[in-house]
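Reposting from the mailing list since nobody answered there.

I have sequence plus structure tokens for a pair of proteins and want to know whether others read the tokens the same way I do. The first protein:
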Amino acid sequence: MTNIDWSGVRDRVAALSRTPDGKVFGANGHEWLLEPPLVPTELAELEQQLGVRLPADYRGFLLEVSRGGAGPFYGLFPLRRVDGRWRWEDGGADLTELGTLAEPFPHSGAFNPADDLPEPPEEEDFTTVEEFDAAEDAYWELHDRVAYDPKLTVGTVYLCHLGCALRQMLVVSGPERGTMWADDSADDGGFSPLTGPHGERIGFARWYLDWLDEATAKAREPLHR
């Protein structure tokens, strides 16, 4: 993979901090703040703990730009070292299964685990409210067990959220390593790779730098009166 030039990114983000509220979606969440980058020894310790080498463009970002903060939507989940262990924090970052990052992400195309579930129960099919409530509770318990099974996302790191429990993640192991995916399970939309206008897969660097270009363009737009 071609080396990414991350120089100037921190300055560009700092310049955007003067953008009026509301012009760039999610900026009220990250407030244009970037945490310090990792030093090489921290990155080495992180990868040793995870048991996996992170994709090159994300590694470069962590070393040259930031360990978290300003970024797409409500910003990048920050990497923190707590009691000697590294982890991503905030906004659903705990969905990242740190112990399974070396396992290959098993999917190569969009999928929705909820598609195979039966239809939810209808009240008119039951003689009492109690029976319907029990059937509905059982259905949603099954739904959540299937739709949110952590085995679905082994080998991925959750990097940000879009609000309403919608999130995006980076694949770090398996054939899809280095690509960005959307987790729309909260809307029963399942999982899908992020793609460009020609269907090409999008990696971390393009995902982040495209956001930065779009945010810069938004910031330059005139305010509507």
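The second protein, same order (residues first, tokens after):
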Amino acid sequence: MTDLNQQVKEDMDALTAQWLQHNDLKAGDLVVVGCSTSEVMGEQIGTAGSEEIAASIFEFLQDLKKQTGVHFAFQCCEHLNRALVVEREAMKINQLEEVTVIPVPSAGGSMASYAYKKMNNPVVVESVKATAGIDIGETMIGMHLKHVAVPFRFQQRFIGNARVNGAKTRPKLIGGERATYERKEVYS
């Protein structure tokens, strides 16, 4: 496991550097995180979760949070209907509705369970509309992104053995061919 932990740390270091360099994370943004620690270990999702692997990933995400001021929403597994662990502050800012459950590795997943133990004043919410997301191990985070999600492909394609993808969102374009989308055209 030591070699895998070292690989995860190297992979997360590369991924967070790429995210900071190329993505438009802003203070206050809500970022959904889906993570299968089983997939990171090279096993099928939901079969071999590891809070040790979750701890390594969480550490890098907390560093990213400090650098950007974003709020993370950690997606639970399907046994909790993909509910999310957030800090109470993020719940209030985003006007989310709290639900009653405490994620554990066997019902919620190792990543969400670990996040719940380590976050300041954690709560669980049923759904969010996040500005961006990271999906480690193909956990299907799309239901928690704003309507127009744009893939963000990292050069770092794997965390351990799990495929990784990112997403950012943009406002919907409405109005058709007569509409104007650039602010500089409207306000010049």
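Reply #1 (J.P.):
I read it the same way you do. Residues 2-22 form the longest helix (21 residues).
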